[in-house]
Design brief:
This protein has 305 residues and is of the alpha/beta class. The chain contains 11 helices and 13 strands. The strands form 4 sheets. It has a 7-stranded parallel β-sheet, with helices on both faces. The two termini are 27 Å apart.
């Protein structure tokens, strides 16, 4: 199967492209401004804000499926440039979904756990959504437009961590970098999430698209924890001092965009569809650690053009 992966230099897109290539997929990665060198898959430069030209480029590679990872994912960037966030997170997603439907190929759209307001947690796919930030609102609008343009699409609400090209993109890297340097940092005791390790997530997404699934799924770990506890797990796994992490409440820290507090999502629907459980956070952090021992972060940095 030939996969077209947008956002191929991002945290998810790059790891997904590498995992897919290792599994024997033919991969064409699509990236905008950040170029890569030495990647084992094909890489093309496209601007999804110029969607008509981007679709011509994608069509020329004749993919068998599209996985759409590209997004304006930084909350503060989305707040300061809402029209840009909606253009990429919603309009481009809808155009890609429509094209995939027209070409008769599977389309998998990456969304976010932040479509919920986080007041209760334990959210299932059919629960009422209520996004708080511009980022989350634009991603929900993207979900809705994708489903309107392509009723066969897969929509995956995700939250993840892992090693990135720059080494500074995920929460796990934030804790790792600061703890290794001996810096004192804060960890929120009242914000909860259900993250997957990014290579675990990549493998699940590939399984979903190969099975030609469709519809909305929460692709998250069945295990949840606070972000403070997540940081403590990172510290203990790597042998750093967990005392460097100060437990604090989100309410006591001034932030930019409004954030949801309890984003624990339920993944039973996907586990039933796949016929197996999803990986735990504990296992994901162990895999994150093992990849560090294997010099994977350095290998990724060497791909920067």
């Amino acid at each position: 199967m030939h996969l077209s992966v947008t956002g191929a230099s991002g945290l998810l897109g790059l790891n997904l492209s590498l995992v897919a290539f290792a599994q024997g997929f033919q991969v064409t990665g699509l990236s905008h401004t950040r170029l890569l060198k030495g990647v084992p898959f094909d890489l093309q430069q496209v601007d999804l804000l110029k969607i008509d030209q981007a679709l011509i480029t994608i069509a020329e590679s004749r993919p068998d499926a599209i996985i759409h990872c590209a997004a304006i994912a930084d909350l503060n960037t989305a707040e300061s440039a809402p029209s840009l966030a909606y253009q990429l997170n919603c309009e481009a997603a809808g155009a890609l979904a429509e094209a995939a439907f027209r070409w008769g190929i599977p389309f998998l759209h990456i969304s976010t756990d932040a479509v919920f307001n986080g007041r209760t947690g334990g959210y299932r796919e059919h629960d009422l959504v209520n996004p708080l930030s511009v980022y989350a609102k634009s991603k929900l609008a993207g979900e809705q437009l994708v489903m309107k343009k392509n009723p066969e699409a897969i929509i995956a609400r995700v939250v993840f961590f892992g090693w990135s090209l720059s080494g500074e993109r995920s929460l796990a890297e934030f804790f790792f970098n600061n703890l290794r340097s001996g810096n004192r940092i804060k960890g929120f005791t009242d914000t909860y999430f259900s993250p997957l390790y990014v290579e675990d997530l990549a493998e699940i997404l590939l399984e979903m698209i190969t099975a030609e699934m469709k519809g909305l799924y929460h692709v998250v770990s069945p295990q949840h924890l606070s972000k403070y506890d997540f940081g403590v797990l990172i510290a203990r796994t790597f042998g750093f001092d967990p005392g460097l992490i100060e437990p604090v409440s989100m309410h006591d820290v001034k932030r930019g965009a409004e954030r949801s507090m309890n984003l624990v999502l339920r993944s039973e629907k996907l586990q039933a569809a796949l016929g197996h459980p999803l990986p735990s956070v504990d296992n994901g952090i162990e895999r994150f650690y093992q990849r560090w021992l294997e010099n994977y972060p350095l290998q990724l940095r060497q791909l920067m053009a």
